[in-house]
Amino acid sequence: MASNQTSTTTTGLSSETALLEALIPGYGLVSRFFISYLKIDLNAYLQVLIGFALVAGCIRFIYPRVLDSLSDLFISTAEIRMEDDVFTYMMYWVSRQPHMKQTTRFLASVKYKTDPYWSDSDDSEAENDDDENGTIAQPGSTAVSFDEYWAKLMSRDRYKKIKFTPSKGCHYFWYKGYLMRLQRTQEESRRFATNSERLWLSCLSRNPEILKELLADGQKAYIERDGNRTVIYRAKRDYDRSFDWVKCMSRSPRPLSTVILDQEQKQGFVDDMREYLHPHTRRWYTDRGIPYRRGYLLHGPPGTGKTSLCFAAAGMLGLKLYLLNLKTNGLDEEGMSSLFAYLPRRCIVLLEDIDTAGVTQTRGKTVMPEDDPPKIDSEKEDVPLVASGNPGPDGITLSGLLNVIDGVAASEGRILVMTTNHPDKLDPALLRPGRVDMSIGFAYTTEQDVRDLFESIYKYVRRDRPRTLISTGKGDDLSQREKQTQSSPIEGGNGKKIVQKEKKNEEIILRANISDLSAAFVQIVPSGEFTAAEVQGYLLNHKDRPDDAIAGASKWVEEIRKNRDA
Ligand SMILES: Nc1ncnc2c1ncn2[C@@H]1O[C@H](COP(=O)(O)OP(=O)(O)OP(=O)(O)O)[C@@H](O)[C@H]1O
């Protein structure tokens, strides 16, 4: 028998086929099929097949490595995680680019649950739309009635704005002459993955600077959207139960002058903050080894302006405001520490109504009588300060709170403002210098406060819509002036414009008489009895008619007194 003849095994398969059968189960059957029906002996092509398989294997092994090496050589890539603010910056930036309008694959959403970009959404854009952007003519402007204006506004508001962002997968665009690729991917492996995504931003260049430029542009666009508005963050529990700050809104800054408070106290508060924020002060603290932190306590009855002052100060200093309620569900010392650890270098943290969280002298499970407060050295004890009789697994202890406020790991540079309606109930440990450096008391309105509130409501404000002029009974005859103005030779043909200007001046003049009206109002509203919120609330019911406000003031005072007695 020739030596190159294929040997046959007892099963009827050639030795080669038997060998391949062992390596590739089913090969014998396929081989027999080919020989019987197609007259093709697969074994004759064996070497070619093996060659192909080897080449394919090599390519499969080498290709990704070559691709990686080429990527390293010619492509720079930035990875952006969803938990990070940069994700929001990028989505904001991309969604506003012209190429986004052309893309054929996008995610359309009105709710943040479907698109994480929305998790940062606030109503500030919508607020701007409502305002004075002229999309809907304002009532009174061009003979548009309020009903017409309102119907248009309502029909527009029925439709929530749909936002479009790039969908999962790759998107290509040009940026400053470079070809960019944005890849949006969904993370599969995370345990609590509800919406865990990543962005991969690549550019065809070895120089990563272009990516950094784009990311900086995204950040700039996003931050500039807020302009000089006061940005407010609040603590939010994440899906993995950790806490993080999320932007909840941005508001036009409140002028400090609109907060009615003793001028000296107000100025003192702001000056103290300015002094603290001065770069020299930081160095001064560091040189002396003093932790660079500042704390304020604003106390007084509800509705006297504590939150308003804090908000106005944040607006004036251009600081972000971080709101934290100690009663936030699930908030414990660990959560609070991590929140404080992620505060920016300069900001205001507002802990509102700190007494309601149980950080009072009435601690633990034993409720002490109000007139016999316990004398406990809270610096040494670690008694849970969850509300008496309401202990739970979560909650902040006094020592926990103190640790977070000024412990070793506490953040530096922040301004802490705590507000309370009951300063007497707070533990002295919380109030000691270093934790509370300045305390401001808010009280019921004085005569001057009532006067200021009255004047601030009725004073001439430039942006106010034109309103019916207030009669002062001092013989101002506008129509007479209109006639005079129109016929004035100096004004020439510009009569209409001049009349409008005159009307404005007229309003200013009339409003100057508001001080007479406010004098009448303070005669009726006694000082030391009402909060600023109460007075403001009453005046807002007569916001165009100060004379009506004066006429109804006695009745209102009586009503409030009766309600308090009841
Ligand atoms: N001193 C004030 N000056 C100007 N407005 C005030 C003042 N006090 C209260 N207001 C008005 O009353 C409302 C409530 O005020 P704010 O929330 O600042 O009171 P608060 O003292 O923080 O109340 P709470 O103790 O209930 O938190 C706001 O609309 C604010 O404009």
Automatic annotation (TrEMBL):
This is AAA+ ATPase domain-containing protein. It is found in: Mitochondrion inner membrane. InterPro entries: AAA+_ATPase (IPR003593), AAA_lid_BCS1 (IPR057495), ATPase_AAA_core (IPR003959), ATPase_AAA_CS (IPR003960), BCS1_N (IPR014851), Mitochondrial_chaperone_BCS1 (IPR050747), P-loop_NTPase (IPR027417). It comes from Penicillium steckii. Gene3D superfamilies: P-loop containing nucleotide triphosphate hydrolases (3.40.50.300). Residues 474-484 have a biased composition (Basic and acidic residues). The chain crosses the membrane at residues 42-63. It comes from the Eukaryota. SUPFAM superfamilies: P-loop containing nucleoside triphosphate hydrolases. GO terms for molecular function: ATP binding; ATP hydrolysis activity. GO terms for cellular component: mitochondrial inner membrane. Pfam families: AAA, AAA_lid_BCS1, BCS1_N. The keyword DNA damage does not apply. It catalyses: ATP + H2O = ADP + phosphate + H(+). Residues 120-133 have a biased composition (Acidic residues). Residues 54-259 form the BCS1 N-terminal domain. SMART domains: AAA, BCS1_N. It is a single-pass membrane protein. Residues 292-446 form the AAA+ ATPase domain. The keyword Thylakoid does not apply. Keywords: ATP-binding, Hydrolase, Membrane, Mitochondrion, Mitochondrion inner membrane, Nucleotide-binding, Transmembrane, Transmembrane helix. Belongs to the AAA ATPase family. BCS1 subfamily. Residues 118-137, 469-495 are annotated as: Disordered.
